[in-house]
Write a structure and sequence with these properties.
Length: 379
């Protein structure tokens, strides 16, 4: 029987991990991810989780250990944040290229220097080309639910999945979360068969590939990542049959015939709901286009959501120095749209309010802002 408890995103991830029949966890502590691993360690210590925990000396080693366990056939989980995720960068490519269904939670945190522990998505978006599926949770309930869906997706397509959630804003903010007991067991206990290390049937992993072999392997890897869209739809539908919560790669809120669309991802999308309500109350037809899955990039879903919208505004809690907002660049570039304005905002955890969004939307509608920039005012 399910129950609602008041927890943050980190604890939500830990509770989901407890229910996910995980064989091995390897991780290294880093703010603001640490309490995920602390909570899991409590579950293991108390006997509530029958999981092998591997203590390592760095995030690079955490992912290397996760790879070894996954190659041996274990269901594997890890978690990290910011500088730790950057330290993993090399092995992220290895994990995806080896087609290992690892699930990892990342607490989005600004990248140093200067040193910061607050929310920003530049860390995970810097890893968008590593071949991992990327999901972005905007609240603790989504973080909890994504864990179950992620294991099913990862194991179906043999591609690792990264669940991202904004540091402190999602990881530590307490809110009611529906936690399951036995209802989810039949869903999560399905484990797909795959090739694993077998001394009776030896195989080479990570061997040298000549050019004629390398490119076909990468083509197959790309095809597998792209297939995550359909598998996510399928696994989300099956999950909804149990929970009544159905997740999509892209979700919309507001007026279907909106003149202006706000595009956001992660915790900013929660604030954007209020901005859309304010705009609609002021007779400006508006809607939110919320991106839940960033890799594979949901091009078709965004085309449907943004088709015939006069003004499109993207709020990026990230920055590609020398280019601008990463989400805006991908939305405009992939869809070939010229009516997209991007605002880089909220870097290093700076507050982004609904009024900030409303003011930016009005400035775009009135022609006061015609090009990308920063949403920033000294307060």
């Amino acid at each position: 029987m399910s129950k609602k408890i008041v927890i943050g995103g980190n604890d939500a991830i830990a509770y989901a991990a407890k229910q996910s029949s995980i064989d091995v966890i390897s991780a290294y502590p880093i703010t603001p991810q640490t309490s995920i691993i602390e909570k899991i360690a409590d579950f293991i210590s108390s006997g509530e989780m029958k999981t092998r925990f591997i203590k390592v000396e760095s995030e690079h080693s955490a992912m290397a250990a996760a790879m070894g366990a996954s190659i041996a056939g274990s269901r594997v989980f890890t978690a990290t944040s910011s500088q730790g995720l950057l330290l993993m960068h090399e092995v992220l490519h290895w994990a995806s290229g080896a087609r290992l269904p690892i699930v990892m939670a990342n607490a989005n945190r600004a990248v140093a220097p200067p040193w910061s522990i607050w929310a920003e998505q530049t860390d995970s978006l810097s890893q968008r080309d590593t071949g991992w599926v990327q999901l972005y949770a905007s609240n603790a309930q989504e973080a909890y639910d994504y864990m179950f869906i992620s294991f099913r997706v990862a194991e179906k397509i043999r591609i690792p999945v990264m669940i991202c959630m904004d540091g402190f804003l999602v990881t530590h903010t307490k809110e009611p979360v529906e936690i399951f007991e036995g209802e989810i067991d039949d869903y999560i206990n399905i484990k797909e068969k795959r090739d694993i290390l077998d001394v009776e049937n030896p195989q080479a992993y990570g061997a040298l590939a000549f050019p004629k072999d390398y490119m076909p392997i990468k083509m197959e890897q790309h095809k597998a990542v792209m297939s995550a869209s359909d598998v996510f739809k399928d696994m989300s539908k099956k999950y909804a049959d149990i929970t009544k919560r159905h997740y999509k790669a892209v979700e919309t809120y507001g007026k279907n015939d909106a003149d202006i669309a706000i595009v956001a991802m992660g915790s900013i999308s929660e604030t954007a709901h209020y901005a859309v309500d304010i705009l609609n109350e002021s007779s400006i037809k508006a809607k939110l286009v919320k991106i839940n899955m960033f890799r594979p990039f949901p091009k078709q879903e965004l085309q449907t959501a943004l088709n015939r919208t006069k003004h499109i505004i993207v709020f990026d809690r990230d920055i590609s120095h020398g280019k601008g907002g990463i989400i805006k660049d991908e939305v405009a570039g992939s869809l070939g749209l010229g009516n997209v304005i991007g605002f880089v905002c909220g870097l290093g955890g700076v507050d982004v309010t609904e009024q900030d969004m409303v003011n930016a939307a009005n400035d775009v509608i009135n022609g006061k802002i015609k090009e990308d920039g920063f949403l920033w005012s000294e307060k």
